Amino acid sequence: MxxxxxxxxxxxxxxxxxxxxxxxxxxxxxxxxxxxxKYVDVLKEICALxxxxxxxxxxxxxxxxxxxxAKKLAEIHPNITIKIIMTEExxxxxxxxxxxxxxxxxxLVFSPLQALLCGKIGVDxxxxxxxxxxxxxxxxxxxxxxxxxxxxxxxxxxxxxxxSVRHPIHVLEAAQIGxxxxxxxxxxxxxxxxxxxxxxxxxxxxxxxxKIPKS
Length: 215
Ligand code: G3P
Description:
Helix content is 52%, strand content 17%. It is globular, with a radius of gyration of 19 Å. The protein is α/β, with parallel strands linked by helices. Helix 6 runs parallel beside helix 8 (140-154) and helix 8 packs parallel to helix 9 (168-177). It has an eight-stranded parallel beta barrel with strand order 1-2-3-4-5-6-7-8, surrounded by six helices. It has a single domain (2-211), classed as Alpha-Beta Barrel (TIM Barrel), CATH 3.20.20.70. The structure holds SN-glycerol-3-phosphate. SN-glycerol-3-phosphate (G3P) binds at residues 6, 26, 28, 31, 129, 131-132, 163-164, 166, 183. SN-glycerol-3-phosphate binds next to helix 7.
């Protein structure tokens, strides 16, 4: 499973790339707003740090405007992937971008049928939001399972990005289902490294190592 970071904080990305585990980055207007910085500046810095798909979201809601905005964003760097919201206008825009060979990540996907439409138009990525489904008492990971089954039935190349990840169990279940990618808040990325028994084991090894005669 590929790991993307779901953040617009460049310092978090700079720290995470040191582990050699980051395959891409997803951003959205809410994440960029938290930084207080200009979207373009943030994207340029991220593209310099990570050699993989970097999702940049358009904010227009009408298809023609989405396409124009997408073209400008795509000029920033060859790794920019355009995030398009899953609406009727969004599907129109995404179809156009696919024809122009501009990579697309369909976002705000909450149903298997929405994902079917995304797969049919041949976008590169689809982003089901699992945490937000959990928030309304649906099981977000069931959606991921449904999408993986549907895409398998028809041999779609669209990769599934598990998004709105809130905790490590989301990542575990995404991997068990075989989702292609999970996009993680920096906090969840760091939580994946942790186990208390590892910490206890390290302490014990170091204590015992100190008891070994040096010569
Ligand atoms: O990947 C999408 C993500 O940024 C949304 O997360 O926690 O706002 O649902 P959340």
